C-alpha cells in the first residue's frame, strides 16, 4: 500500500457514503454495480442498523487502545469496550466481508469514509467530564489513535481488495464549531473554547500525511455553509491540510455563488480534485424528482465556462451527493447513483471534445 495511484483522466461519480437498509452485501453489490466501471465506488455505511453503525461509532471503533462505550450523553472513552462498541466492531467485520465478496476481482479506485479528528474529538466524551476536544492532551492522544486505526483499516481493505486504489474521505462536519468555539458544554449552557486554526490544520495534516505515506489518497469534507466562502476560516484550512481532494456541496437547487466558485478554481489550480455535491439528497427524500442529466451537467459546466476554466481540468471533478443516501429507498438510492454516473459521463464527453 505504497505506490501512487494514477491521476484521473475523466470525471467520475460517487456518493458521500451512507446507504439505506441493513444488509451490507446487498449495499456493496449495488454500489459497485453502479460505479465499478470507471467511477468511484465506496464502502457503503448502513446507519439504519442502529448504535455502532452511526458515523461516530463506526470511527470510534477504529481507535487503537482507546475503548469507547455508548452512554446517554454519547460515545465516551472508557477502560473496556462497551456492548455498543463491540457491536460496531461486529458491523465492521460484516462490512469488510461483504466488501471483499462484492469487490472480488475489482481493480480501480475505492473510497472509504471516516469521521475526522476534530469532529470526533467534539463528539467523544472523556471518561469523567467534557468532550475530548476540551483537553489538548486527550485530543492529541485521540488523534494519534485515530491515525493508527485508520491506517490499519485501510490496510485491511487493501488486503481484501488488493487491486483497489484507496481514497479515504475524512468527514469534518463539526470543524466550524470547533474553530469558532460553538461546541456546547455538557450542561448545554456554555460553549467550549475554540481550537486554534494552526493546531486544527496540523491535526488534519497528521492524518492526511500518514495516509499519503501509505499510498492512500484523502478527501476532506465539510458541509458547513461557510465553505468554501465565508468568514469561518474553514475553507483556507481545508485547502492547506494536505488532502488530495475537497468535497463541496454544490446542489442544482442552491447554486454556489461566484466568490465560492473562484475559491474552487484556486483549489483546482493548486492540484486538488473537487468532489462537487450536485445531487440534493434531502430534496429527493422530500419528494423532489431526480434532476435530469442536463441539469447536473450545467451545474458544473455553466460556472466552469464563466470562469474560463480549461476543459482539461474536468478530469479533476467527481460529481457526488450533498449527503448520504440512507434516507432514500434502496431503489431510489441506486437510481441516484445511476444519474450521477450519467452526469459524469456527460462531463467526460465535454472533456473528450475539447
Characterization of the model:
With about 350 residues, the chain is an alpha/beta fold. It has a single domain (about 10-354), classed as TIM Barrel (Alpha-Beta Barrel). The chain contains twelve helices and nine strands. It has helices at about 25-35, 55-60, 85-100, 115-125, 135-160, 175-180, 195-215, 235-240, 260-270, 280-285, 295-305, 330-354; strands at about 10-15, 70, 75, 110-115, 165-170, 215-220, 245-250, 275-280, 315-320. A seven-stranded parallel beta sheet has the order 1-9-8-7-6-5-4. It has a two-stranded antiparallel sheet with strand order 2-3. Helix 9 (about 260-270) links the parallel strand 7 (about 245-250) and strand 8 (about 275-280). Helix 1 (about 25-35) packs across helix 3 (about 85-100) and helix 11 packs across helix 12. The two termini are about 35 Å apart. The mean pLDDT is about 95.
Question: What labels would you give this structure?
Answer:
9 strands, TIM Barrel, 354 residues, 12 helices, seven-stranded parallel β-sheet, 14% strand, single chain, 44% helix, alpha/beta, two-stranded antiparallel sheet
Any idea of the CATH class? Alpha Beta
Instruction: Please estimate the helix content.
Output: 40-55%
User: How does the helix and strand content classify structurally?
Assistant: alpha/beta
CATH-defined architecture: Alpha-Beta Barrel
**Can you write the helix and strand succession as a string?**
EHHEEHEHHEHHEHEHEHHEH
- Number of extended strands: 9
Give the overall form.
Answer: globular
Please list the strands of the largest sheet in the order they lie side by side.
Answer: 1-9-8-7-6-5-4
Poorly predicted spans: none
Rounded radius of gyration (Å): 19 Å
Would you tell me which CATH topology applies?
A: TIM Barrel
- Average pLDDT: 94
**Overall domain count:** 1
Amino acid at each position: 500500500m505504497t505506490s501512487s495511484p494514477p491521476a484521473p483522466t475523466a470525471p467520475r461519480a460517487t456518493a458521500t457514503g451512507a446507504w439505506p437498509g441493513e444488509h451490507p452485501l446487498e449495499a456493496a453489490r449495488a454500489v459497485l454495480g453502479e460505479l465499478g466501471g470507471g467511477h468511484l465506488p465506496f464502502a457503503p455505511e448502513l446507519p439504519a442498523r442502529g448504535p455502532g453503525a452511526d458515523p461516530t461509532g463506526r470511527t470510534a471503533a477504529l481507535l487503537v487502545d482507546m475503548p469507547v462505550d455508548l452512554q446517554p450523553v454519547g460515545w465516551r472513552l472508557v477502560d473496556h469496550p462497551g456492548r455498543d462498541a463491540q457491536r460496531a466492531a461486529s458491523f465492521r467485520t460484516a462490512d469488510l466481508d461483504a466488501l471483499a465478496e462484492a469487490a472480488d476481482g475489482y481493480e480501480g479506485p475505492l473510497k472509504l469514509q471516516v469521521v475526522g479528528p476534530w469532529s470526533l474529538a467534539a463528539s467523544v466524551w472523556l471518561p469523567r467530564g467534557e468532550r475530548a476536544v476540551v483537553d489538548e492532551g486527550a485530543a492529541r492522544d485521540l488523534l494519534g489513535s485515530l491515525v493508527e486505526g485508520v491506517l490499519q483499516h485501510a490496510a485491511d481493505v487493501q488486503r481484501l481488495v488488493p487491486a483497489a486504489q484507496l481514497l479515504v474521505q475524512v468527514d469534518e462536519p463539526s470543524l466550524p464549531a470547533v474553530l469558532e468555539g460553538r461546541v456546547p458544554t455538557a450542561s448545554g449552557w456554555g460553549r467550549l473554547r475554540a481550537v486554534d486554526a494552526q493546531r486544527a490544520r496540523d491535526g488534519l495534516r497528521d492524518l492526511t500525511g500518514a495516509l499519503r505515506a501509505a499510498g492512500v489518497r484523502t478527501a476532506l469534507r465539510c458541509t458547513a455553509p461557510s465553505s468554501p466562502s465565508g468568514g469561518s476560516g474553514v475553507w483556507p484550512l481545508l485547502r492547506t491540510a494536505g488532502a488530495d481532494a475537497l468535497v463541496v456541496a454544490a446542489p442544482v437547487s442552491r447554486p454556489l455563488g461566484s466568490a465560492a466558485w473562484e475559491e474552487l478554481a484556486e483549489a483546482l489550480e493548486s492540484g486538488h480534485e473537487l468532489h462537487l455535491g450536485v445531487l440534493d439528497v434531502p430534496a429527493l427524500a422530500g419528494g423532489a424528482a431526480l434532476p435530469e442529466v442536463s441539469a447536473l451537467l450545467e451545474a458544473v459546466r455553466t460556472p466552469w465556462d464563466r470562469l474560463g476554466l480549461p476543459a482539461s481540468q474536468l478530469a479533476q471533478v467527481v460529481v457526488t451527493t450533498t449527503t448520504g443516501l440512507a434516507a432514500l429507498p434502496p431503489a431510489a438510492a441506486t437510481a441516484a447513483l445511476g444519474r450521477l454516473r450519467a452526469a459524469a459521463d456527460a462531463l467526460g464527453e465535454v472533456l473528450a471534445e475539447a
